Amino acid sequence: MFVLKLTQIGNSVGVVLPKELLGLLHVEKGDTLYVTQSPSGVTLTPYDPAIEEQLVQGRDFMREYRDTFHVLAK
Q1: Which of 52, 70, 71, 74 is most buried, most CB within 10 Å of its CB?
Q2: From CA 47, how far away is CA 34, in angstroms rounded?
């Protein structure tokens, strides 16, 4: 568990992420993080949730037409 403190950054308020947390998230300075609401609060992730939904739909499509893709691959 990480405890993060809010700090004044210019006219905004920000959070400084420790190096260990950046490593867990596999991000570095300049990368983008996404914050989404979840049943337990909020989730911080480097993965765009819109892309994740597209991947789920693509996997469903591939599963549905699996036999067709096997025939086309020959």
Answers
A1: 52
A2: 7
